[in-house]
Write a structure and sequence with these properties.
The complex is a heterodimer. Chain A is an alpha/beta fold. Chain A has 14 helices and 17 strands. The N and C termini of chain A lie far apart (58 Å). In chain B, 34% of the residues are buried. Classes of the chains: A alpha/beta, B alpha+beta. At the A-B interface, loops of A face loops of B.
Chain lengths: 444, 127
């Protein structure tokens, strides 16, 4: 069964239709030196059965959280996913829908996004949430660009320990703008120093950015950081893990002007790194500067509720050259997963997920701290993730634990740092936690 | 279409009204412009103190499905922006009155005479 029906005769007739005598004549405008000028080195043709078999054997080489006990975190977490999520999001109406420009035929998709926006507003304690962005890192970078656009200031201060990949994305975004400088706060005992932050603040600071919990899993003093930001007229940007908000205070409650986050923990699988979900919320006063799009609820001419794309005039398809953001597509399917996840769990369910993640992480940290040679690096309070100092290099710990079908955590050496970053979710049973601690004990 | 005889107009559909002191003027968009844009939902203006060259953008007016730039009819400085435009629909309702947008101090008041008069503007919009 051929997938590309493109025979010599087909090609001949296409060339004839376009009025040229050969393929070379068709591409005569492309200079010879930039053409490939050699044959493509493709594997021999294979039929569907063979291709399927090759791909399945490649996929089987992956080691996933389906077979391994995972303590991996660092921005992506192994939370339990209720089966209903997959059943709902795989409905073809949702799975295949592109941007719902035509409201008349897109009410289901529009309502799903509206529900997502409403749920995230409640979770983050904010007034307005957009229809989502690519991922947490780009949402954070867009938040900083938005702050610079709002107050016209140039300097950005990062308070505490931001995920290095988020820092890197932020730097990439700011490189294109002329003057913006990012100042990283000094970190002491796992969290940003408020005293050092005070010294960095002045009236040229556009925004203060904080990640809560931070990259080390520690809890920053977000109230003090927010106060300092506002005392100097800077916007306060918080990047918060959404599941942590089941036990921690919402960013809106401690004064965040813009709240962002990586939405993967809300119902999306880790998927080897994506696609993920960028959460982006603001206070009402900032809605006109919000990147991306919003879905609003209104009444139609018969007085019935209806859903529409609103505030889309700052997007590419209407004002490309003046769009406040280059992100036009959203992550609608991941946003839907988040909405379904939050709807299924409810407020009580989410706080149980967060509470169990927290208490199991603290149980494991206690067990690891008791193993000779191992210690918990920081004293700061943490949610479900913490840094472990190990008696042998973390990379060795990770490698040896793979033999026991355990993902031991993130080797911070990969980030130019030290230690092993260990994350625990509600999925880890006491038996698994004990097994992991016992196995670590054998390495000491 | 309402085109008051006492005002001057631009090809970009702004109007300007020279005030009695002969040095300042009010600027807004025409009745034709507001009717073409449809429901206006937001007006964003540069703050008082902003110096403008002729034809420089001094803000944007946003309707449900489009956004239009606002161009200074002549050079000058923004003295005041209309705080009443928090209710942007005012521009639809009263484009030459309470829907005015900025008050300008003009660099050269005589330059207003170079703009379109009501008859010329009426011809431009075909009615």
């Amino acid at each position: 069964m051929p997938f590309i029906v493109n025979t010599d005769a087909d090609r001949e007739s296409m060339l004839h239709a376009t009025g040229v005598s050969s393929f070379d004549e068709l591409i005569v405008d492309i200079p010879r030196e930039v053409r490939l000028n050699k044959a493509l080195e493709l594997a021999p043709a294979a039929d569907e059965m063979e291709v399927r078999s090759i791909l399945e054997s490649m996929a089987a080489a992956n080691r996933s959280t389906a077979d391994y006990v995972s303590f991996l975190g660092g921005g992506a977490y192994d939370h339990f996913l209720p089966s209903a999520i997959k059943a709902i999001v795989s409905r073809s109406e949702f799975y295949t829908a592109y941007t719902p420009y035509q409201a008349e035929v897109s009410q289901g998709t529009l309502q799903a996004i509206y529900e997502y926006q409403s749920l995230i507003c409640r979770l983050y304690g904010m007034d307005v949430t957009n229809a989502s962005m690519y991922d947490g890192a780009t949402a954070l970078a867009e938040a900083v660009l938005m702050a610079i656009g709002v107050n016209g200031r140039q300097k950005v201060v990062v308070a505490g320990k931001l995920h290095p990949w988020n820092s890197s994305v932020l730097k990439t975004y700011l490189e294109a703008s002329d003057h913006s400088a990012v100042v990283q706060n000094v970190v002491e005992d796992g969290v940003g120093s408020i005293e050092v932050l005070k010294g960095l603040m002045d009236d040229t600071v556009a925004a203060v950015v904080v990640q809560q919990p931070n990259f080390y899993g520690c809890l920053e003093d977000v109230e003090a950081i927010g106060r300092l930001a506002h005392e100097h007229g800077a916007l306060f940007i918080v990047s918060a893990n959404p599941v942590s908000l089941g036990v921690l205070e919402a960013p809106g409650a401690y004064g965040a002007d813009i709240s962002v986050g990586e939405g993967q923990p809300l119902g999306s699988s880790q998927s080897f790194g994506g696609p993920y979900l960028g959460i982006f919320s603001v206070r009402q006063e900032l809605v006109r500067k919000l990147p991306g799009r919003l879905v609003g609820m209104t009444k139609d001419s018969n007085g019935q509720d209806g859903f529409i794309l609103t505030l889309q005039t700052r997007e590419q398809h209407i004002r490309r050259e003046k769009a406040t953001s280059n992100i036009c597509s959203n992550q609608a399917l991941n946003a839907l997963q988040a909405a379904v996840y939050l709807s299924l769990l409810g407020k009580q369910g989410l706080s149980e997920v967060a509470g169990q993640s927290l208490s199991r992480a603290h149980y494991l940290a206690g067990r690891i701290a008791a193993i000779p040679g191992f210690s918990i690096r920081y004293n700061a309070p943490f949610f479900n993730e913490f840094v472990v100092d190990t008696p042998i290099p973390p990379s060795e710990v990770v490698r040896k634990m793979l033999e026991k079908k355990v993902f031991a955590g993130c080797d911070l050496g990969e980030f130019g740092d030290e230690g092993l970053l260990v994350a625990v979710t509600e999925k880890r049973t006491k038996a698994q936690l004990d097994m992991f601690a016992d196995a670590l004990g054998e390495l000491a | 279409m309402n085109v008051p005889a006492a005002l001057r107009y631009t090809k970009d559909h702004e109007w300007i009204q020279l005030l009695d002191d002969g040095a300042t003027a009010l600027v807004g968009i025409t009745d034709f412009a507001q009717s073409e844009l449809g429901d206006i939902v937001f007006v964003e203006l540069k703050p008082a103190g902003t110096a403008l060259k002729e034809h420089e953008i001094f803000g944007t007016v946003e309707a449900v499905k489009t956004v239009a730039d606002l161009f200074a009819p002549v050079a000058g400085e923004i003295l005041e922006v209309n705080a009443g435009l928090d209710s942007a629909e005012t521009v639809n309702q009263d484009p030459y009155g309470s829907g005015w947008m900025v008050k300008m101090k003009l660099a050269d008041p005589a330059s207003v005479a170079n703009l379109l008069d009501a008859a010329a503007y009426r011809e431009l919009i075909g009615g």
